[in-house]
Amino acid sequence: MQARSKIWLMLAAISISALGTGTLQAQSAMELSNDAKSTNAVLTVGLGQGQQRYSPLSTINTTTVKRLVPVWNYSFGDNRGQESQPLVYKGVMYVTTHDATHAIDTKTGRRIWSSKFEYPPETPRIVCCGIVNRGAALYDGILYRATLDAHVIALNMKDGTEIWRSQAIDFSDGYSMTMAPLIANGIVITGISGGEYGIRGFIDGWDPKTGAHLWRRYTVPAPGEKGSETWPGDTYKHGGAPTWITGTYDPDLDLVYWGVGNGGPWNAEFRKGDNLYIGSVLALRPKTGEIVWYYQFSPNDPYDYDGVNENIIADVEIDGKVRKVILHADRNGFLYVIDRTNGELLKANQYIKTLNWSDGVDMATGRPVDSALTKKMRETGEKIDVWPSAFGGKNWFPMSYSPKSGMVYANTLEMGMSYKPVEPKFTKATFYFGIDLAQLQFLFPEDGKTGYLRAIDPLSGKVKWEVGSEAANWGGTMVTGGDLVFTGTFTGQFKAYDSNTGEEVWSFQTGSGIIGQPMTWEEDGIQYISIASGIGGAYRNFIPVFGAKNTKLNALIGSIPEGGSIWTFALQ
After folding, report:
1. Given CB 3.0 to 4.6 Å as the disulfide criterion, which of 145, 164, 219, 230 pairs with 201?
2. C-alpha to C-alpha distance for 279 and 330, rounded to whole angstroms
3. What Å distances lie between residue 129 and 169, 532, 539, CA to CA?
4. Cis peptide before 265 (omega within 30 of 0)
């Protein structure tokens, strides 16, 4: 009996040892897949792998929100733009800046550790639209982040020590990295920035333990690859198609949905054809990078309408049938509903007021219909005033989706631009636009409202309510089970709105402009909400240059002080 007991214990020990890392890994994968439902942690950018940015927490609601007060503030010691979304796990908040990663005690706001790194001093010269970082990924005790000089770094979550560092590509060719990595089926997946510099875009898969490069999916096919016929001559070499916003992951289908950006140069007549896969969403197998299906929002995009905006995973009823979809508000001004199992276009509706580049989306072909204005520009090369501008109907800042209301909540833009294509000339690591920058000018509505927070029906594009602002807001939104929408303003207010009516029900002035992403979690029965504050980004960089005639807007933006920090709030 004693001998049998010893044998049983030995077998049990061997079994536990064999499970060891695998069990921890599986547990982490399970936590990631449950992130949208759990309330005591935030493990993913987007409050869940499907990036709905919805929390079921309701302690803070339309009645109690008036008692919301700051409980701590943590300074980054950094004056760059703060676009990161914090993550929370077991009493520790993890948040990134352009050159540091911080671990903060969630109760006190005190630093646990800070890991700072340096990148070559010439790096900022090759970053188009703001010195920023948008967040990290957590998996099996490791934090993953990207750097401006195109590296992926793995840090020990306990103390911030570096585990591995892998180079994606030589940044000096115009590449950079600003997105948060994505964990999908045990793979670390990253994108790349640099579409304005004539790069050739791609998406990478990495081994989470070693940093070994597993696969690369180029988003501009080379000769002989599927889709290469959509690129004339050798234009593919500098075709752009960056992948600078984090994708989403459906573990049930084992598919990653990743947006692909603008073509290079902007002058589309130089690269006649559909130019796959610019302005698209790719459905990929995370283990291999294989493209299962794609949908192209803006074939041969001439206006920098990109396609990288978030793809929210949702299950919605359409014509009496529940469909597995992604929701995507494109910069081109149309809000798309796409079957995420096969790429079938289900809905495509305009969600902004002024749009003149297209007459709509042909539902039979899935292609946008060029307006007479766009046809004229293509045929003559004459200067035109086109809406929306290159900033789009909505830029990178993510919208949220409430399964409770069925609405999406988005900071949207109402701006146009004067646009004239010219012969492009490629020079390494310099802007590769192919447009007349001397004639580029942002255009503004007569009422001065350059942006709106909107509640939009994703199936119709109809706006239920909207709140306008003179300085368009450049931050993400979050919606909660307490019927609240949280977002920040470019002028520094962190605000809450009734998600059903759009009524502003709470506001707090932070120390700088908000361009970050709100998040919430529950700890010891208390609901907390956090947001990063710190002015920066493309809007601040370009409006004073290409929107110079709008002196009132310039003065407003110029009055906002710099300074990055994270604010955390709870009920008093």
Report:
1. 219
2. 9
3. 19, 18, 8
4. yes
Selection from 260, 493, 518 nearest residue 400 by Cα:
518
The pLDDT of residue 537 is above 80: yes
Residue type, 305: Y
How many C-beta neighbours within 10 Å does residue 566 have? 25
Percent of the chain with pLDDT over 70: 95
In this structure, how many other beta carbons lie within 10 angstroms of the beta carbon of residue 68? 22
* Averaged pLDDT score across all residues of the chain: 94
Task: Tell me if 275 sits within 8 A of 230, measured CB to CB.
Answer: yes
* CA separation for the pair 516, 531 (Å, rounded): 6
Closest CA to 86 of 539, 532, 547: 532
Helix (H, G, I), strand (E, B) or coil at 238: helix
Rounded to whole angstroms, the Cα distance separating 219 from 296 reads 12
- Total number of residues shown for the chain: 572
Structure tokens at 444: 């503004």
- Whether the per-residue pLDDT at 19 is higher than 90: the answer is no
pLDDT tens for 169-202 read 999 999 999 999 999 999 999 999 999 999 999 9
Contact 278, 241 (CB under 8 A): yes
Contact 211, 11 (CB under 8 A): no
Query: In this predicted structure, what is the pLDDT of residue 306?
Result: 96
Single-letter amino acid, residue 261: G
Retrieve residue 356's tokens.
């003149």
Q: Tell if the pTM clears 0.85, that is, is over it.
A: yes
How many CB atoms are located within 10 Å of the residue 531 CB? 27
Residue 82 and residue 533 in contact, taking contact as beta carbons nearer than 8 Å: yes
Please, what sign has the CA dihedral across residues 58, 64, 66, 69?
negative
**Residue type, position 344, single letter:** E
DSSP-derived 3-state class of residue 378: helix
**pLDDT range class, residue 60, cuts 50, 70, 90:** very high
CA distance 401 to 329: 12
Q: Worst-scoring range by mean pLDDT, 3-12, 185-194, 301-310, 454-463?
A: 3-12
Please tell me the distance from the alpha carbon of residue 543 to that of residue 538, in angstroms, as a whole number. 8
User: Which two tokens mark 21?
Assistant: 């890392």
Bin 422: left if φ > 0, else alpha if -120 < ψ < 50, else beta: beta
What residue type is 330 in one-letter code? D
Q: Among this protein's residues, is 250 annotated catalytic? A: no
Instruction: Tokens for 84, please give them.
Output: 């990161």
Distance between alpha carbon 6 and the CA centroid of its chain, in Å? 55
Which of 140, 304, 483, 498 is an active site residue? 304
Residue 125: what pLDDT?
Answer: 87
Tokens encoding 211: 């940093």
Closest to 313 (Cα-Cα) out of 298, 299, 328, 301: 328
Close Cβ partners of 226 (under 8 Å, ≥ 6 residues apart): none
Pairing of strands 54-55, 477-480: parallel
Q: Is 18 exposed, middle or buried (0-12, 13-18, 19+ CB in 10 A)?
A: exposed
What span, in angstroms and rounded, lies between the C-alpha atoms of 99 and 109? 20
Question: Locate tokens 């004539």: which residue?
Answer: 198
Give the C-alpha separation, 356 to 329, whole Å: 17
What gap in Å lies between CA 334 and CA 312, rounded to an integer? 15
